[in-house]
Every structure is written in C-alpha cells, then in structure tokens.
Amino acid sequence: MANRCHIRSISLPSRSHPITLKIQQELKKLRTLEASSTSTLGTICNGLSELQELSKCLGELLGLPSTQQALFHHQHENWVNELLDGPVRLLDVCGSVRDVISQFKENVGDLQSALRRRKGDLCIESSIKNYICSRKKMNKDAKKLMAAIRKMDNKAGASPLLDQDHQLSTVIGVLREVNSMSIPILESLLMFLSTPFLMSKPRGWSLISKYLHKGAVSCEEKHDTVKELENIDFVLTTLSNGRADLEKMNIALKGLRVLEAGSISLDNGLECMFRNLIKTRASLLNIISH
Question: Is 135 buried (19+), middle (13-18) or exposed (0-12) by CB count in 10 A?
Fold first, then answer.
C-alpha cells in the first residue's frame, strides 16, 4: 500500500481517555502498514482488518456519555455536516467496490469449474477468454472508481475547530482519521484490481518459471514477490496458446484458489467496512438528534 496516497495525519490531544490511547495504537498500525507495504491481497486484507479494529474503537468512543454530550451541545457547527457527509461518500465507493469484487469472485469460480471439468481444449479456451474479458472489465471499472475516490479525497476538507474542548476535539480528530485512513486502503485495493491483463513474461520471470514447473511457491513469495493476478494471467495465457495439459491446469487451479480465498477475504472486509460506516453515521445522527 506504499506510495498510494498521502494520509493527512491528525494529532489527537495528549490528555487521553484509555479508548483514545487504543485508537492511537490502531492508527499507528495502519500508518505503518500504509507506508511499508505493497498492494497484495494479503496486505490489503490486513488493512481492512485493522480498519475494522479502528472502527470498533470509534464505536466505543461515541458510546461515552461525555462524547455524546459534547457532540450534542455543538450539533449546529459546520464541522458536524462534514462528519456526517464523510461516511456517505465512502459508503458509495465501498458499495461499488464490493460489486466489482463480487463479480470477480463469480468469474474466478466459473473458470475453476471449467478447468476441473476438463471437457476439452475448446471448452477450456472459451472459459479462459471469458475470464480475460471479465478481467479487462474489472480493470476498467476499478480505474473509474479510482478516479472517483481520488476526486473525493481532493475535495475532502476539514472545517476549522475554534476553541473546542478536549473531549470534542478528540472525537472530531478520530472521526476524521477514520475517514482519511479508509481512502488509501480502498485506493490500494482498486490499484490491485486495475492490474492490466498480462500477455507476456512478467518481471521476476525466474520465480514465475518456478511457479509453472514446480507448481508451488512459499506463501511469502506469493504475497511479497509476485503479483497474484499477474501469476494467473501468464499461466492462463500459456494454456490458451497451447494444449491444455494436466500440469498447467493444476497450476492454474492452485492459483485460482488463492485468488478465490483472497477475494472472499476482501469481500468480508468490505462488508465490515460498509456496516461500520453505516453504524458510525447512525450513531452520530442519534447523538445530535436527542
């Protein structure tokens, strides 16, 4: 996830409630992940998981009586609308990304079924062509969503806080951090999904050859050295350009299982993110309306 998006770091007040200290720890984990990792299935899933933990902490913070009192007494401030609008913008993008992931899971499953049945070279070639078309569509959809989320990030502003008390400034800072942290995670996921279909030898060919001929690489190699989508792309290209031999089909199936498991994890992470965004906005609305 490195070099994907500059995160606007927001310093929380030094005098902190225990839950705020926990939030600071979760934010540190996310910043470290964003700064040091690449966009693989594993790191993106980790980012979604860490974001879920951060959202749980936010829920605890919003449940504090002191938090609810502070927000209620300032419900007419300009920054209240900003905090309410943030989850709405993210919900729209998150929902669209979930649709792309859902379609991708379906396409991966269809190709796995075709390879398992092994009804002949023409049937397999047709299934591979369908997968390639779906990959290209996913690439196009992901790029559109990428442009939308970057536009949203550029427009995201922060209303100034004038002489707010400690509790209130803490809550506002955390809410803004959660929204700002969500953007680079979604952007990294979209960059992964927008990987162009690979028709030629990728970089790190020696490792791909090992993948092809031995049929296995270590978990570390798969997630840190070689892009998962590029692995499958090249294996499928070799299948469609020649006879669909058993060894290559087994290698393709192994890689597709990795993608299927990763897409399921991504879908689950996005579902949690979607629910947490709804819960956060509902909590804010309940607090300021009572």
Answer: buried
Distance of CA 130 to the CA centre of its chain: 25
Question: Residue 285 corresponds to which tokens in the numbers above?
Answer: 């609305």
Q: Which of 233, 45, 58, 231 is nearest to 128 (CA)?
A: 233
Q: What DSSP character marks residue 63? A: T
CA atoms within 13 A on the CB side of 287: 27
Contact 51, 182 (CB under 8 A): yes
Inform me whether the pLDDT recorded for 23 exceeds 60.
Answer: yes
Cβ(242)–Cβ(276) under 8 Å?
no
Q: Could you tell me the maximum CA-CA distance found in the chain, to the nearest angstrom?
A: 73
CA 128 to chain centre: 26
Amino acid at 217: V
pTM: 0.78
pLDDT for 158: 55
